[in-house]
Design a protein that fits this description.
- This protein is elongated.
- It has about 160 residues and is mainly β.
- Helix content is about 10%, strand content about 40%.
- The longest helix is centred in the first third of the chain and has 17 residues.
- The strands form 4 sheets. A 4-stranded antiparallel β-sheet has the order 8-7-10-11, with no helix packed on it. It has a 3-stranded antiparallel β-sheet with strand order 5-6-9, with no helix packed on it.
C-alpha cells in the first residue's frame, strides 16, 4: 500500500507539471523595452489578444496568462442594400438608384487611382455621363452622407 501511495504521488507530480503553461512567447520577432515606470513587450506573428486597464496603466498584447483576454469585432459598414449601379459594363452612362432621402458623394477613379470625377447626389435615380472617359475599368466610391458608410464598385466602360 505504501508503494502504491508513493507511485501515485510521483505520478501526480509528473502530470501536474505536464499541465502547467509557461507565460513565455515563441515568435519570430519581439522585444521588451522598459523605463522607470513603463514596460512594453511586443512580438510579431501571433493572434491579437490583450487588455488595457486603468489601474496602474497596463497595456498588453499577446499571451499573458494573468489577463482576462478580450477580442475586438469588425462591423459590416456596407451600403449595398440602399444602392444600385447599372448598367455594367456600360457604353456612355451609369445610373445610380439611391434609397429615398439619402445623400451620397460619388468619386470616380481610374485604374491608377486618379480622381476623375466627384459629384454629390440626393435624388432617387441619378444618371452619370461617362462620355468623356475612355474605355477601361473605373472604381466608383460611394459615400453616404446620412449613414457615413462607404462602398466601392468596379465599373467597366466599353
Amino acid at each position: 500500500m505504501k508503494h502504491k501511495i508513493t507511485m501515485l504521488a510521483i505520478a501526480s507530480c509528473v502530470f501536474a507539471n505536464a499541465q502547467t503553461v509557461s507565460s513565455s512567447v515563441i515568435s519570430t520577432a519581439g522585444k521588451t523595452s522598459s523605463s522607470s515606470d513603463v514596460a512594453l513587450d511586443w512580438t510579431l506573428g501571433q493572434a491579437v489578444a490583450g487588455q488595457m486597464s486603468s489601474t496602474d496603466i497596463q497595456l498588453s498584447n499577446g499571451y499573458h496568462s494573468q489577463l482576462d483576454l478580450q477580442f475586438l469585432s469588425i462591423t459590416d459598414e456596407t451600403i449595398t442594400a440602399s444602392l444600385a449601379i447599372y448598367p455594367n459594363p456600360t457604353m456612355d452612362y451609369v445610373v445610380l438608384d439611391l434609397k429615398p432621402n439619402d445623400e451620397v458623394v460619388v468619386t470616380v477613379y481610374n485604374e491608377v487611382g486618379q480622381n476623375l470625377l466627384t459629384t454629390e447626389l440626393n435624388t432617387v435615380q441619378n444618371k452619370i455621363n461617362l462620355d468623356q472617359l475612355s474605355s477601361g475599368i473605373y472604381i466608383f466610391t460611394v459615400n453616404s452622407k446620412i449613414s457615413n458608410k462607404t462602398n466601392s464598385y468596379k465599373i467597366i466602360k466599353k
